[in-house]
Amino acid sequence: MKICFWGDIASALNGNTSGGGELQLALLAKALVKGGHEVVILDSDTSTDFITTDGIKVIKIKGWNSGLPFIRAFTHRLPKLYNSLKKQQADVYYCRIRDFRHLLAFWAARKVKAKFILGIASDLDVSNFSKRIKYFYLVNRLSLWVMFNGLLTEIIYPLLLRKADLVLVQHSGQRNILLQKSIKSQVFSNIFEQIEIQLKQDQVPDHFVYVGSLDKRKGIVDFYEMVKKSPAYKYKVIGSPRDKTALRIYQKLKKFRNVSLLGKLTQPETLHHIASSKALISTSPMEGFPNVFVEAWACGIPVLSLYVDPGGIIKREKLGFAADGDIDRMIKAMNRLGNQNGLEKRAKTYVKEFHTLTENKIAEISSLFYEVKENSVNV
Questions:
Q1: Which of 58, 150, 203, 333 shows the greatest Cβ crowding within 10 Å of its Cβ?
Q2: Where would I find the Glycosyl transferase family domain in this sequence (predicted)?
Q3: 275 vs 12, 204, 206, 216, 292, CA distance in Å?
C-alpha cells in the first residue's frame, strides 16, 4: 500500500524537529514503512529528494519558491502541491496539523480514487471558534499569511472533518467534542520511540523541568508567575523564546538563582534532564496530547499540568497532577511529591501499552490503514 504525506517533515525525519506535530508525522511514517508500506512525503522545505535509512521517500515540491511573494501561493504553490499529490497515485493520503491546503490532498485522493485520513494535532482543531480566537489568533503574530491561512482554514477544515474517510484524534476528549457535532472519529495515541537514558544510581532529583516552545501561547506568563511564587524550588528551562513576551520573561528569569536556562537541546539531552527531575511542569492553556508528557512518563516522571489533562489521562491513570488553572494548587502539588505510590512503574507501563512503537503497535497501525483503504465508511 502506498501512503502519501505532505508538509515540513524532512527535518523531523533527520532528527531536527520543528514541533510536536511534525515529530508525530515522522514517527507515523517510520511505523508505516516498518509495516511494509511505501511512504512518500512531499516536502516544500527540503533542498533535494532523498530516501531515509528507514526507506521513506522524501520528494521536494519543485518550483515552490518560484514567482512573486504571496501571489505565488496561487500561481505556483497551490497548483504545484495539488499536481504533486495527484501524481503520487497513492492509496491513502494522510494529513495532520490544521491547514486549509489539506483540501488539495482531499481533492487528489478523490481524483485518484484513494482514501483520505485527517489527524487531529490539537484540541483547537475541534474546539469552537471563540477558543481559537482566545488561544491562537490573539496570542500569535498575525502576518498577512497567518490571517489568510486562518480565514480559509476556518471555512475549509470543518468540511474536511466531515468528508474524511477517517478522522484520528489524540484522546477521548477530542472524540467527544466531535461526537457532539455528529462527526465520528477514532482515538490514535501519539507514538513514542523509546530511547535509553543512563542515570547515576545515586542521583537524587533536585529540580523541576519546563520543556517546550517558550511563548505566550504556551503559557510562559503563568510559568513566570509560578516561579515567583515558589523561590524554594529549582527549575530547569529547556527551549528558546519564540515571541516578544517570552523574550522579555526569559531575560527576567536569568536573574533568578533557582532557574537554569538551558536553551534548545536535542531530544536525548532533553530526556536526560526530564529523567533526572522531580516532575515535568506544564503551563500551556491549550494542547492536544503533548509529546513531552509521554516522554516524561516513559522516564517514570510525573507531569504537573496547570491546565491540560488530555482525555483525563493524568487524573484517571494517576500520572501526576492537573491543577485546573490554579497556580497555588500546582505549587501545593509540588510540595506533595514525596510519596508517588508506584508512579514510576505505572507511568512506564502506561507508555509501553499505549504509545511505544513496538511490533504490536506497528501491526495495529498497519491494520488501521488497510481497513481504511478497503472500506468506504468514515470509521
A1: 58
A2: 198-352
A3: 23, 11, 12, 26, 12
Report the CATH number that the domain containing residue 259 is assigned in CATH. Answer: 3.40.50.2000
The boundaries of the domain holding residue 48 are 2-191+357-374
C-alpha cell of residue 283: 503551563
**DSSP single-letter state for residue 289:** S
> Do both 167 and 253 map to the same domain?
no
Mean pLDDT across the chain = 93
pTM: 0.93
One domain, residues 231 and 330? yes
Does residue 263 share a domain with residue 326?
yes
- Contacts of residue 27, defined as CB under 8 A and 6 or more positions apart, other chains included, come to 191, 192, 193, 357
Longest dimension (CA), the chain: 62
Q: What is the DSSP letter of 306?
A: S
d(CA 356, CA 339): 27
Which ranges of the chain would DSSP assign to H, the alpha helix? Answer: 10-13, 20-34, 72, 78-87, 102-111, 129-135, 144-163, 172-180, 220-229, 244-253, 267-275, 291-298, 313-317, 327-335, 343-354, 359-374
For residue 377, the model assigns a pLDDT of 45
**Is the pLDDT at 143 greater than 90, yes or no?**
no
254 located within any domain: yes
Question: Residue 21 domain-assigned?
Answer: yes
